[in-house]
Amino acid sequence: MIRFENATKVYGKSDRAALDHLNLEIGDGCLYGFLGPNGAGKTTAIRLLTGALRATEGKILVNGIDTAERPVEAKRLIGFVPDSQEMYDKLTGWEYLNFMADIFGVSAEDRKRRGEKYLEIFEMTQAAGDRISSYSRGMKQKIASIGALIHNPPIWVLDEPMVGLDPRAAFLLKEEMKRRAAEGATVFFSTHVLEVAEKMCDKVGIINQGKLIMEGSPEDLIARRGDASLEELFLELTDKDQESPKEEDERK
Amino acid sequence: MKNYWILTRVMLKNMLASMNPMAGAYTDGKKKRRAIFRAAGVLILILLALGTIISLEYLIYSGLDMIRMPMVLPGMAIFLSMVLTLVLGLFQSLSELFQGKDAPFLAVLPLTSRTVFAARLTTLYLSELVIDAVLCLPAFVLYSIGRQSALPVLLTGLPTLILLPVLPLSAVALIAYLLMRVSVFARHRESIVMALSMLVAIAYSIGVTLMNQQDGNPAAYAVMLASQNGLLEKLLGAFPPALWATKGLIGDAVMLLLFAAVSLAAAALVILAAGPGYLEQALSSTERTVHRTRRTESFGWRKGSAFRALHGLEWKELLRTPAWAYNSLVGVIMFPLMIAIGFVAGFSKAGDSIESMRMLLGNVDPGYVALVTSGVIMLGSMVNPAVSTAISREGGRWPFALTLPVQQKVRFRAKLMVGMEINAVCMVMVAAVAWYLVRMPILWLLAALGVALMNGLAAAALSLWVDAKRPQLNWTTEMEAIKKNFNQVIGMMLWVVLIGLCAAAAVLLWSRGGGAALAGAAGVAAVEMIAAFALLHKVTEKHLVLQV
After folding, report:
1. What angle (nearest 5°) sits at the alpha carbon of residue A51, between those of residues A49 and A56?
2. Which of A46, A73, A78, A90 to mutate to test the interface with B (most CBs of B within 10 A)?
3. ipTM
C-alpha cells in the first residue's frame, strides 16, 4: 500500500511547489496510472516515493513505513524502473540482475528462478551475457524491469515504462504489470500514453502543476464528464493551466 | 584546410568552456557565489603550483650556476617535458583521440577523417604545450637572465617551446592508433588496450632508465662532470631530440633546424599514416561486440552481500570505463612502478652506492629513517580520483542509485575500499622499494607503512565526504567526470593539510628521537582517521538524497 499524506516538495528557493499537498492512497492489488503533462510533478512524486528526494512537508508511507524515517526499509519493499536511460551500463545484463539481487538480499535459488523466468518472459535470455551499453533503449527498459522484479517486491513503481518499447515489448510489460497487480502487488506507474491508462488501470490520478486534480477509475472519470474519452478529459483538465509550464521540477 | 580551422576552433572553444569554473553560474546568486569561490580557489592553486615550480627551478639553477653548468637546467626541463608527454601522453591520446563520445556526430559531418584527426591532435597538442610551458619557460627565462642574453634565448626559446610537444605527441598518437587497430576485433578491447598501453609506458620507463644508467666507472664520471656539454650529452643521450632542442636553445642553429625538421616531419607522418583510418577507429570504440548466444545455464547465480555487490560494481565501472581507469590507476600505480623500475634498474650496476647508503643510514636512528620513509610512502595517496570523484562519477545514475535500499555506510565503505585498495597497492610498492634501498628493520618499515596508510585513509575518507556533500553530477563525458572535477583538487588540498599536521607533530617531537617523532606522526594520523570517519558517518541515508 502506498500513501502520500500532504506530500509537498519545493525545490530550493522556488516560489512554486513542484508537488503541492498531494494526498493519495493506493491499495494492494491496484494498478494505478499517474497522468499529467510535462512538468506536472509526476517524476517528483515518484522520486519522493522511492526515496531519491526528501519531502519539504508531509510524508509518504509504503506499507505503513515512513520513507523519510526508515528509508532503507521502505526502499526494500519497492521495485523501481526509472525512465532515464542512465543505467550501470558497463555491467552485462546478467551482472546487473545479480547486482540487484545482492542489494535486495535475494537467495541464490530465488534469483536463479526469477532471473531465468523474467529473462524468458521479456525475451532477454540471449542478450543477458552482453554489456548493457550494447543494448537498445527498449532492451535497457526490459533489463531494468527484470532488475526491479528480482526481489519480488510488493510495490512496483515504473516511471514512463512504455517509452522506447516496441509494441511486442510494451505488450509483455503490460501483461506483467496486470499479472502482478492480480497477484496482490501495488503497481504504480506514470505515463503519457492515455490509451494504456484507460485500458489497463484500476485507478488513475491526473496531476497538474503539482496538484492532484482528479482521481478515480477510468470509467468513473469518463462518466463524470459525459461521454468524453480519457484523452479529451485530460486535455480539458490540463489545457487551462498550460500558460505557466516552467517544468521546473522535471528539469531538476 | 578551412574545415580544419573551423573544427579546431570549435573544439578549443568547447574545451575551454568545460574548464571555465564560472560556466553556467550567471542566473542564480548562490551558484554564482560558489562559482566565484571555486574560480578563486583554482587561481590560488595555479599560482601556488607556479610559485613552487619557479622557486624549485631557481634553487636548482643557483646550484648549477655555482658549478658552472647553468645550461643543464633548461636541458633537464626539456627532457622532463618530452618524457612526460611520452609516458602520460599515451593515456591522454587514447582517451582524447579514441574515446570521445562525439565520434558518431563527427562521422556524419562532411569532413575527411584526416581533418578530424588533425583538429583533435591540435587540441591535444595545445594542452601539452601548456604543461611544457609551465615546466620550461621558467628554466628558459632563468637561463636567459643568468647569461644576460635575453634576446637570443627568447628567439630560440619560443620556437623550441612551440616544437617541444610535437615529436613525442606524434609518437604516442601513432602508438595509440596502432593499439586501437590491433585490438579492433577483441571482445574485451578496452581492457586489452589499457593493459597494452601500460606495458608500453613501462617499456618507455625501463628504456629511458637503462639508457641513462651510469656504468659506475670513476673515469666515466670524471669525463661527464668535466664539461657542461659532457654532462648534457650523458643526461640527454637517451633521447637525442632533447639534446638537439637544448643545443638549439643556446644558439646552435643547425641543431634547432634539425629538431624542427624532425618534429614537423613526425607530425606530418602521423597525420598521413593515421589520419585516413582515424574516424573508423574512433567509431569502432563506440561500438560494442555482441554475442547474443549465451544460455542462462552459464550464469553463476550466487548470493553475495550488498557491500560485495557495490564493491564489485565500483571496480567494474572503474576498469571498464577507459577514461576512469587511466586516471585512477595510471597516476597511482604507474608512478611507484616507474620509481621502482628506476631505482632497481638505475642502481643495479651501482651496488657500491647502495651499500654506502645503507651503511650511512645504518648509523642513523631507525625512527628517523622510518619517519622519512613514511613521508615518501604517503606520496602514494596524494592523488586518488577513484575515491575523490566516487559519487560524482554516478552522474545521471545517482537518482536511481539513491533508490537502492542500502545504508550510506555500506555505500561509502564500498567506494572507500576501492580507493584504498588502489592506494594500498601503490603504498606497499613504494614501501618495498624503500626496504630494498634502505634495508631498515621490518618492524620500522611496517610502522612507517601503517602511519602512511592511516593518513591515506583519512585523506580518502575526507575526499569522499567532500564529494558526497557536493557531487559534480552534471557531466556529459566520462573524462569530464573525473578529470575536470574540482573535488579532486579539494581532495589534494586536504591531503596536504593532513600531511602537514603529521609533519608538524613529528617536528615538535624530533628532538626526543626518531621513535617519538614517528609515534607523534602516528598519533596525529590516527586522530585524523577517526575524525574523517566520524565526519563521513554523519552523512546518513536520511541526508543522502538529491540536493535540489
Report:
1. 80
2. A90
3. 0.83
